[in-house]
Sequence to fold (116 residues):
Amino acid sequence: QVQLVESGGDLVQPGGSLRLSCLASRIAFSIYTMGWYRQAPGKQRELVASISSLGITNYGDAVEGRFTISRNNAKNTVYLQMNDLKPEDTAVYYCNAKYASTTSYWGQGSQVTVSS
Fold:
C-alpha cells in the first residue's frame, strides 16, 4: 500500500518560513511527478508546486518566488520550502504523487497556519 506522509506543518508568524517534507513509501518514487497542493477552508484544493521526474518545476502564481519545491530520490522525499509566509497561505497542505494520467496518490495533509 502506497503511503505519503507529510510533516513540518506548524503555526508561524507572517514573514516567517517553514519547510514541509513528504516521505513516500512502497512507490517507484523517481518516476513520479510529485506535487504540493493546499486547501483553505471554504476553498477548492489548488496546486502549490510540482516537480517532475526530470526535475522540472512548476509553481502556482500565488507562491511563485516565495516557495521552492525539491526532491531527493535517494530518500523518497519531496520538500516544500516556504519563505515570506502570508496569512493567505494558511491551509492544509497535501502531498501528491502522479504518474501518467492514471495513477495518483495523496497524503493525509499537514496544517500550516500563518498568524500573528
